[in-house]
Amino acid sequence: MKNNIKICKNNKYGIVNKKAGIFIPCEYDDISLGQDDNFYFLVNINDKWGVINRFNQLLIPFEYDMVDYPKNELLSANIKDKYGLLDLNNKIIIPFEYELLINYMPYGIVAKKNNKFGFINTDNKPESEFKFDEIFINTDYPEHFYAAINKKWGVVNAKGLIIKDFIYKNPLVIR
To answer: Which of 80, 121, 146, 167 lies 20 to 30 angstroms, CA to CA, from 6?
Structure first.
């Protein structure tokens, strides 16, 4: 959030945002600046991450090696090199069984299993085969994803359906 200012005192971090009336005291080993108007902050104590709200209330406890910003009230997290999906009550929505999990909700959830990427839904059911070597979101058209198979790039949707054939050497040239 552009009005958030990260502050530091005695090697501990907090946030000030005078415009929104936010003051998070300097009590964290690290803190994010926030990403959107929901005012969720990623916070770290003793190399474990959690999530607080704008009132410094702990939503996600300090149990995770990594947490990502919530999207649609869901966030990906990592424990011992396995990724899963949580809600803001720390309820596990998708178990910690993936090599990587990226929440692009409402557009889709990208997961990596057995060194291949695919799409899953919030019920942990596959939306596509796990057959892609790489996947990342197309920021111009967020319902579309760049994907690679055997070093050739194409465009797919969150069901894995091909929108542009896998014929490109570089995803950035796909139009």
So the answer is: 80
- Contact between residue 168 and residue 134 where contact means Cβ atoms under 8 Å apart: no
All structural domains of the chain with their residue ranges: 1-64
Return per-residue pLDDT of the chain as tens, 175 residues: 567 889 999 999 999 988 878 889 999 999 987 666 668 899 999 999 999 998 999 999 999 999 998 888 999 999 999 999 999 999 999 999 999 999 998 889 999 999 999 999 999 999 999 999 999 998 888 899 999 999 999 999 999 999 999 999 998 887 7
DSSP string, 18-84: TTTTEEEEEEESEE---SSTT--EEEEETTEEEEE-TT--EEEEEEESEE---BTTEEEEEETTEEE
The answer to whether the beta carbons of residues 80 and 88 sit under 8 Å apart is: no
Here the tokens at position 142 are 């967020």
Torsion angle of C-alpha atoms 54, 27, 79, 145, degrees rounded to 10: 40
Sheet of 92-98, strands arranged across:
66-67, 74-79, 82-87, 92-98
- Nearest CA-CA partner of 76 in 92, 63, 62: 92
d(CA 64, CA 139): 28
